[in-house]
Design a protein that fits this description.
Elements: H1 5-17, E1 20-21, E2 27-28, H2 35-50, E3 54-57, E4 63-67, E5 79-84, H3 97-111, E6 121-126, H4 139-144, H5 150-155, H6 164-171, E7 186-192, H7 197-201, E8 205-211, E9 213-222, E10 226-227, H8 239-260, E11 266-275, E12 281-282, E13 285-294, H9 297-317, E14 321-330, E15 333-334, H10 337-350, E16 354-359, H11 364-368, E17 374-379, H12 395-412
Parallel strand pairs: 5-6, 5-7, 7-17, 8-16
Antiparallel strand pairs: 1-2, 3-4, 4-6, 8-15, 8-17, 9-13, 9-14, 10-12, 11-13
Helix pairs in contact: 1-3, 3-12, 8-9, 10-12
The protein binds (2S)-amino(hydroxy)ethanoic acid (HGY) and manganese (II) ion (2 copies).
Length: about 425
């Protein structure tokens, strides 16, 4: 089966204009509920409508378009594919949109083929996958799979006093009811790999085995702000010096697990808020954002134990108080065999080589995998770069992966 590579490219390029930033590469900042997000959503809904899909927006802004071919039995559950349109600040144009518009291109290609699906086929765009504005992450898919209460999601605040409810209201995407992914026969997500394995192997498509578990936490270190000049070194309660020891302990714990396991464990401090954050004041307080992942739950727990031990010894050695509170905790998610084999046979049908791999990034598919069969496929990332304007996937690779997605959807849409 063929896809229209130019049409897919045009969709991704046009979507990349929303929230575009001046940068080397093709950067965009599209936070959930922003005006750029509204424009991206509007365009998607127009394109879904152009393709004859019935479009629905749910209470947390998830967008679902459904194609009901004449060949589909009325009561047949749909097969759905998709991803997200929001981005991290200064992210790239492929992380998310390749999956949403790749799914739409698959539907359009099936409509133009002689395939007669037994099932409806859906295209979904989940709200706030990145968690860059309202925190957590994979929010829309968590609501669509019963893992997050919609009212709780809508009440989440962006730190500037704006709730998700208000933000969605402002852009006209606070819909009715919630999507229920457990009603879907299967779900597939096309995504950029965000690593270098496909590029190094010269293989165009990755079929995901397991999506890594992810746990995030906020560490707080309380010392005492004081005069940087008049406070002798032995009288300080320096929160940032203490935090620096903790940052290195996070890195060491991640390295230890990576070296003793299958190099799939990672541990990061990606956020550091220093107060009052001025040069002539000994820092009184620090808040750190911690991100721990692995495909093995026990390994994640060993890392957290090491972090708790580190904070305990910091408190023993320094006049500071510490706390560590988890803010997100999602188990590793094995992908469904049925979806993996549909992707592999789809690749065979498309004459495309694949390689099996885990996903080091978290994705909506991990939420959906709790309630129905879910699968993922990757397209290569140039130099493995992502969450960066230099994120890039060649247009030919986008089209190749979309062809495999199309074949796999056709297979899953047969009874
Ligand atoms: O953080 C992640 O893994 C994803 O990009 N939200
Ligand atoms: Mn991302
Ligand atoms: Mn993503």
């Amino acid at each position: 089966m063929t896809v229209d590579a130019d049409r897919l490219r045009a969709d991704i390029e046009a979507n990349g204009e929303f929230g575009a930033i001046e940068s080397a590469g093709y950067g965009r900042t599209v936070l959930a509920g922003s005006d750029a997000n509204r424009r991206a959503r509007d365009r998607l809904c127009d394109r879904l409508d152009d393709a004859g899909l019935t479009v629905r927006v749910d209470a947390v802004g998830n967008v679902l378009g459904v194609w009901r071919p004449p060949s589909a039995a009325d009561e047949a559950a749909p097969v759905v594919a998709g991803s997200h349109l929001d981005s991290v600040p200064q992210g790239g144009i492929f992380d998310g949109p390749l999956g949403v518009y790749g799914a739409l291109e698959a539907v359009r290609s099936l409509q133009e083929s002689d395939v007669e699906p037994d099932r409806p086929i859906g295209v979904v765009s989940f709200t706030e996958e990145e968690g860059a504005r309202f925190g957590g992450g994979m929010l829309g898919s968590a609501v669509a799979t019963g893992q997050l209460d919609p009212a709780e999601a809508l009440a989440l605040d962006d730190g500037d006093g704006v709730s998700l409810a208000d933000a969605l209201e402002d852009i006209g995407y606070r819909g009715e009811g919630v999507l229920d992914a457990s009603e879907w026969a299967a779900f597939l997500e096309l995504h950029v790999e965000q690593d270098t394995r496909l590029e190094s192997a010269g293989v165009p498509v990755g079929v995901v085995t397991t999506v890594t578990g992810i746990a995030q936490a906020t560490a707080r270190i309380a010392g005492q702000a004081n005069h940087a000049g008049a406070t002798p070194m032995d009288e300080r309660r320096d929160a940032l010096a203490a935090a620096s020891e903790f940052v290195l302990a996070v890195e060491a714990a991640g390295r230890r697990e990576a070296e003793t396991g299958g190099n799939t464990a990672v541990a990061t401090v990606g956020r550091l808020d220093v107060r009052p954050n001025v040069t002539n004041v000994v820092p009184g307080g620090v808040e750190l954002g911690v991100d721990v992942r692995d495909v093995d739950r026990a390994s994640m727990e060993r890392i957290f134990t090491a972090l708790e031990d580190s904070l305990e010894s910091i408190e023993a050695e320094r006049p500071v108080r510490t706390a560590l509170d988890r803010t997100l905790d999602v188990d590793p998610a094995p992908m469904a065999d049925r979806c993996r084999s549909a992707l592999e046979s789809g690749a065979d049908a498309a004459g495309v080589e694949t390689m099996a791999m885990h996903s080091g990034a978290a994705h909506d598919a991990m939420r959906v995998s709790r309630v129905t069969d879910a699968g993922m496929l990757f397209a290569p990332s140039r130099d493995g770069i992502s969450h960066n304007p230099r994120e890039w996937t060649d247009w030919e690779d986008c089209a190749t992966a979309a062809r495999v997605l199309t074949e796999a959807l056709a297979e899953l849409a047969q009874k």
